[in-house]
Specification:
Blueprint lengths: L6 H17 L23 H17 L17 H13 L7 H14 L2 H12 L5 E4 L15 E5 L2 E9 L9 E7 L10 E7 L5 E7 L5 E14 L3 E2 L6 H14 L3 H17 L1 E2 L2 E2 L4 H29 L5 H26 L17 H12 L6 H12 L6
Parallel strand pairs: 1-4
Antiparallel strand pairs: 2-3, 3-7, 4-5, 5-8, 6-7, 9-10
């Protein structure tokens, strides 16, 4: 498959790039403390930056760019998935403020695929306007990579489903409005069956969130408990006991939309510039053969990641399910995030261990943060081991182990 931008796609690339350069301060990318693939909230530093971010988000909503690949009748622009990928790449390259990427990138597209007209009318306009936010209620203490092993139940009782169980490693749940949840609606069915999807209001009685503090001392994850939580039956998405295979499509969207590939290029460029301009023991770092090898390896793998971003988008435009490609993309990018952090730590030496607000820390202390945080990226949305199993079985036709 040959992938290159059409004239229309190149024009859109230029349009997004110009918009970002106009609407964001020139130094905005340097304000970010987010490592590529980072799960933790970064913040904007001060109140003025938050005001800039809010104005920028309002501009995105006004242009209708939050939902550019959605049908026009649902508030979208009916752009192609390739144009969506271009938008995501440029946004992440400039480290632009984002609005609920889960609702826009996962929940909305899935509602357009499997939701009823009534559900689409209820949820799609609010998601498109950035009025509500979502968290992924997937993982449980005994079910992470193997989501078929979930034990949280949702049992029908009149006009409601009553939910009991626990979710864990719930990124940003405390900052959102609703959970996009999988639960077992038929406890007696085989584990790949009897699973359904729900939208669950965080404010419902019986929902309890407890923070999980990550390795950097930040509240990014949660464990969430459900004690006889009554959810209206109309919040069941896609039909009862039919959602495990819809969930696989949702995971494809997750692995594609949350990549932020432009952020990898921006971080690599910063690291490359540091190696070009920094002296150690009287020599430019970039003269070291060891440093050159590390940077060349990262550059090569970055290009591979870009190829799979564009390839996956092209497949979606061809109405093909990129199950294998999204798994390849997930492995390539999350392991690149980890290995880039390790390479940066080696290149910076002892300076890489410094954290803010040390005046001696290079690259805004991003390297120490990335070194600690990037490991979680290889776990969330399916571990690298699970992705390799998918590639082996679906892509190469190898038997299950």
């Amino acid at each position: 498959m040959e992938i290159c931008f059409t004239e229309k796609e190149q024009a859109f690339y230029n349009e997004v790039d110009a918009f970002l350069q106009t609407e964001l301060p020139p130094d905005w990318p340097d304000k970010s403390i987010i490592w590529p693939g980072d799960y933790s909230p970064g913040g904007y530093g001060d109140e003025e930056n938050y005001r800039i971010a809010d104005r920028f988000k309002a501009g995105l909503i006004e242009k209708g760019w939050l939902t550019i690949s959605w049908p026009r009748e649902y508030g979208g622009k009916a752009y192609t998935y390739m144009e969506q990928a271009i938008y995501d790449e440029r946004m992440s390259y400039y480290r632009a403020p984002m609005i609920d990427s889960l609702g826009i990138g996962i929940v909305g597209p899935m509602l357009l695929r499997v939701g009823t007209p009534e559900q689409q009318a209820e949820w799609i306009p609010r998601i498109a306007a950035g009025a509500i936010s979502m968290w992924l209620a997937y993982s449980e203490p005994n079910a992470g990579s193997d989501l078929a092993g979930i034990e949280t139940t949702a049992l029908r009782d009149g006009d409601d489903y009553v939910i009991n169980g626990q979710k864990v490693w719930s990124s940003g749940a405390h900052l959102t409005d609703y959970g996009w949840m999988i639960a077992r609606t038929d406890p007696d069915a085989r584990k790949h069956r009897g699973v359904s999807l729900f939208i669950v209001d965080n404010k419902l009685p019986g929902v309890t969130m407890r923070p999980i503090i990550n390795i950097m001392g930040q509240h990014s994850f949660n464990e969430v408990f459900f004690d006889n939580v009554r959810v209206p039956a109309k919040n069941l998405i896609g039909g009862e006991n039919k959602e495990f295979y819809h969930l696989m499509s949702a995971l494809d969207f997750e692995r594609v939309t949350l990549v932020g590939i432009g952020g990898f290029r921006r971080m690599f460029e910063e690291l490359l510039e540091y190696a070009r301009t920094t002296e150690r023991n009287g020599e430019i770092l970039g003269r070291s053969p060891a440093v050159k090898r590390r940077l060349v390896d990262l550059a090569t793998r970055l290009e591979i990641a870009y190829i799979y971003v564009w390839r996956t988008a092209a497949m979606l435009d061809l109405k093909k399910d990129p199950h294998v490609e999204s798994s390849v993309l997930k492995v390539v990018t999350t392991e690149l995030a980890r290995d880039m952090a390790e390479a940066a730590m080696d290149i910076l030496g002892p300076y890489g261990q410094l954290t803010a607000p040390s005046p001696w820390t290079p690259l805004r202390a991003l390297v120490s943060r990335g070194f600690l945080e990037s490991i979680s990226a290889t776990i969330g949305a399916g571990t690298s081991e699970i992705q390799r199993n998918i590639i082996a079985q679906r892509g190469l036709g190898l038997p299950r182990t």
